[in-house]
Amino acid sequence: MTRIPAEQLIGLHRRRVYNRNAPSDVVFCDVDGVLADFSSAFSELVASKFPELSLTHTSEVRDWYWKEHGWTAQHFAWGWRQVGKAENWWEQVKPLAPPEVFARIAALHTTVPIIFATARTISGGDSTQMQTIRWLEAQGIERPLVITRTSRAANGHSDKSDLAEIFQPRLVIDDAPDTVRKFARKGVTVLVPPWPYTEGLDKEFPNNVYRMPVLDALRFVG
After folding, report:
1. Going by C-beta distance under 8 Å and a sequence separation of 6 or more, which residues neighbour residue 213?
2. Per the domain annotation, does 171 fall within a domain?
3. Domain that holds residue 74
4. What would the pLDDT profile of 94-123 be if each residue is shown by its tens digit?
5. 65 and 99 in a common domain
6. Is the terminal CB of the chain with fewer CB neighbours within 10 Å at N or C?
7. How many structural domains compose the chain?
8. What is the model's pTM?
9. 115 plus 170 within the same structural domain
10. One domain, residues 111 and 24
11. How far apart are CA 216 and CA 222, in angstroms?
């Protein structure tokens, strides 16, 4: 399967949402740390080589780079190499959000243009975009619109905020502190899951960053 370019996604909604001069009704929703439990999957993988590392669930992550949990660049580098070799690794990540979140997104997705914008390292098998599409479909979301960015940072994440210039999103749901800050500085309203590593973001940007559970955030979507 081939990757769907961002330009094609723009064309899918061009008539109803894209206006360079005003915010659209597009909503960005991140995947890892919002819908998918990346932290548990990746920490379990790396602990198979470095058993001294404790397993880390998203709700327990205090530091975005996991330094407080004893992680180093070596641990991340080894883990990403394994992901790169694994067949369709991203489809094996378990859901983080409860079933009612996916049910709500599935209902909203029929009327609201939700774009799942995620940064993921390339794995073996199909493209990360196609893996993410199939993962979302397995959670009951039909024909999800997915944009993936190849991750190059040490912790596997990359910048998505430049997409704001193209899509003019009305809302963004994201957990990555640097991504949240970049969207907020562009004036975009960002709804952030209340994980330990997102603490203080709402105080840093009191006018357009709000911390709340994902199900509550979806009430602002539609």
Report:
1. 193, 194
2. yes
3. 39-92
4. 999 999 999 999 999 888 999 999 999 999
5. no
6. N
7. 2
8. 0.86
9. yes
10. yes
11. 11
